[in-house]
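Milestone 3.1: sequence recovery, worked example.
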């Protein structure tokens, strides 16, 4: 059975082109992760195919560096979806429905196809947000990481659903 893959927009790859081979960035998943975390933190998701006609399916599982954080990433996805849908953490039936839609413990990613789609949408929305907030595409990884860290920290601090 074929499963959906993580996908990244071509314009995202182009935007990161100057730093994608600079350490500590080692994989395409690193770039995806930068965008995903921002998308989740600001609660922004967009359809990657509608935003850019060219997308690349690049991975069918979490790469080894991110495997230990797989459950955390899925938890952040669930938290973001609960917030987006206006569902309280006390609404057990709604949470159960969301888990059924997004989580599949039999899949190597522990996500359903819908769950993978949602992550891809948040990564796409995170790229849109990132590219809007920065004046230009990054040229030096150190400068990008400083700017990105501040942007992510500010986004997390402003996200009410991520507090406590």
């Amino acid at each position: 059975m074929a499963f959906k893959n993580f996908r990244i927009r071509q314009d995202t790859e182009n935007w990161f082109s100057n730093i994608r081979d600079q350490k500590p960035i080692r994989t395409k998943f690193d770039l995806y992760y930068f965008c995903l975390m921002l998308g989740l933190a600001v609660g922004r998701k967009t359809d990657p195919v509608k935003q850019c006609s060219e997308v690349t399916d690049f991975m069918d599982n979490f790469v080894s560096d991110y495997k230990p954080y797989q459950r955390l990433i899925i938890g952040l996805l669930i938290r973001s979806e609960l917030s987006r849908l206006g569902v309280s953490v006390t609404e057990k039936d709604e949470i159960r429905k969301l888990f059924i839609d997004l989580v599949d413990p039999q899949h190597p990613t522990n996500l359903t196809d819908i769950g993978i789609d949602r992550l891809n949408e948040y990564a796409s929305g995170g790229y849109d947000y990132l590219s809007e907030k920065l004046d230009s595409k990054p040229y030096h990884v150190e400068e990008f990481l400083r700017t990105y860290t501040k942007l992510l920290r500010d986004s997390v601090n402003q996200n009410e659903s991520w507090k406590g």
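Residues 39 and 126 are 4 Å apart (CA to CA). The mean pLDDT is 90.
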